[in-house]
Here is the input.
Amino acid sequence: MSKLFNDIQPGDLIMSTFWNQVLHALNSFDDRINALEALSATGGGLAISGMFPPPFHIGDTVTVLGRGFGVPSSNSLNIDGTPVAVLAGSSGSQLVIKIPNLQGIPQAGKFVTLTVANPGGSATLTFLLLQGQPTIPTGSLQVSLSPVAVSPPDPLIIAGKTYIFTFAVTAITSLDETYTVAPTVGSGWTAVLVDSGGATVTPSEVLIPKGDPPNGTVQNIRIAVTSPLGAGNGVSSPLTVTLTAKHNATLTNFGGSPTPVTIGSPPPGGQDQVVVSFNQVFAPGSSAGGTIKIPPSNTQVRVDFTAKIKDIGTPVTYNIAAPVIQPSSALWAAQLKSPAQINQTGSNLFSIALSAQPSAPAANLVVSVSSTSGQVVTGQVSLPIIAG
Here is the structure.
């Protein structure tokens, strides 16, 4: 007998999606039992006793229960006059169908009539039909290095050793969705998605529940980074992580460590008082694989960033530093287009105008936000940029 649900392992996260599947299965069993009881209480002839699983949406595949269907292909079905095909898995006591795209179904739904007819007679069933369920997630993602300490907590990065960096993903999205996770590092380095025990996750994907605005759903992911064995001090690599929705390639974003991972130096650390992350780039610019691409036409392109400011109980003013191109190049220009001060906690959006001249070399755009009082705290993000 096939299993309806996979076994739950110790430590597994049980989400609302799983419980909804259990409840829908129980409701389906109840519907089938009621339908069988109804059949036993009536006489012969063609009859419809029920349909499952509810609720019923345009595009759903459902099973019509009854008797007298005979050979499934001998039945003619329609819903409010729209023909319905009989699918595989049908028999003399059940017909599997896909609800067609009926026009004029309001958001609250509409009662429609299913008619089944064959040489033995005809029967009808009236039910509430709802609009089709959305299957493509929409919304936004933000990816930033988490304040969770790098593991193991070595004071300096050691060549050839693996370190686990934690990134926080904030999803303000319409649906639960599975995202591909693509970490990017320099030549000779490796980076993979790992679970809480440090084992590589294959395929490199993560399920993130839907997130309602304004806060969305925040989920941590872990990236294991290994530097080249035998590499000398000062050898470094940027670290960026790109997430892309499997059912909507335009729902994507990336974030990176505030500074490169450098052998012989302290690991890039996250802190949660001020976290800076890439938000989006506007046309004619684009982003892919953790890199921002700008046309080499000396045209200013808007690039948005988000500074998340934690409420620490006392008012603090933060300054957005002038954006920096590293290594410096006269063929690149970056200019802050938003007010330079932030006084509000929570998410604060600000914009950079970025432009590239012909032959501009590959570089990094470094954006920093720092507190102006007390112990200075800085949030920073470094993004690879290319002209092309």
